[in-house]
Amino acid sequence: MLLKTNRARTLGLLVGIILFILSICASILLGYTATTWKMAIDAYLNFNGSNEHIIIQTTRVPRALIAAAVGSSLAIAGAIMQALTKNPLASPGIMGVNAGAGFFVVLSITFFAQASLNQLTWSAFLGAAVAAFTVYFLGSLGREGLTPMKLTLAGAAMAAFFSSFTQGLLVINEKALEEVLFWLAGSVQGRDLDILLSVLPYLVLAWIGSLLLANPINVLSMGDDVAKGLGQKTVLIKLSSAIVIVLLAGGAVAIAGPIGFIGIVIPHLARSIVGIDHRWVIPYCGLLGGILLLVADIGARYVIMPEEVPVGVMTAIIGTPFFIYIARRRMAG
């Protein structure tokens, strides 16, 4: 733990906010088309219809804001999942959220001919919610109720279930494969601001909810018996946490597709900085998750310029070594 006092953590939070804002600014300015601060400002104050102004308004700004919101949401969802399951490798994938969202998108394209990105967004959001609540229900069956092991196994089973059916639909439907392939890789490219605005109310509600749940999650982390002894309603806390996870992870996946590893990497990084108190871990996750996805998206523009790689590929490159390190350390322990 690097920051051991509340004063140091507060200062670190301010530094994180500054880096977060700078990352958004960098995302707006950097890319194949050269732009400047003046162009970015004039695009809104003195719009002249130039190619640079159009790119800033319709591509760069929405892309930066979407990356910031999605990265923050995935990181916070990962932190809550790891606390709820007591599994350091937990992430939105552990509850089958990504797989459920992808399956519902492919299902919509195949059977309902949904073509617009907004329609696919809501299909993905519904799929994420169905997957998460199914996992929660299956993990709660039995006399012991909801346990970390049962939740993890139910999540893995549902992820495999949805992924198998998704692959089956893609095999028999080339049109669906063409339309959904880039989305399935995870990307913030080509999304307009309307998509973010349609999901933003749910994300904001979940951000607030995660902060309100921070202290109850701290108590729950000490064990169900201890939490009950301290007067906590453990079932209500777990259910509320599951709803927040659905809103965060489901909303993020609906906007940008299944972007991996942020929900695993960032909570560990946040805890290494501020410790295990979720009153600090959650806001740090929000900032660090947004920064990581913004930086990864900027990198995705330059790797094979003038073409771009999906940002999900970049986060996988960053996150895979860390995932292996955590897994090996857990096995050694």
From TrEMBL:
Keywords: Cell membrane, Membrane, Transmembrane, Transmembrane helix, Transport. The keyword Cell membrane applies. InterPro entries: ABC_BtuC-like (IPR037294), ABC_transptr_permease_BtuC (IPR000522). It is a multi-pass membrane protein. CDD domains: TM_ABC_iron-siderophores_like. The chain crosses the membrane at residues 12-32, 64-84, 90-113, 120-139, 151-172, 193-214, 242-269, 281-303, 309-327. It is found in: Cell membrane. Pfam families: FecCD (PF01032). Its main location: membrane. Belongs to the binding-protein-dependent transport system permease family. FecCD subfamily. This is Iron ABC transporter permease. It comes from Bacillus suaedaesalsae.
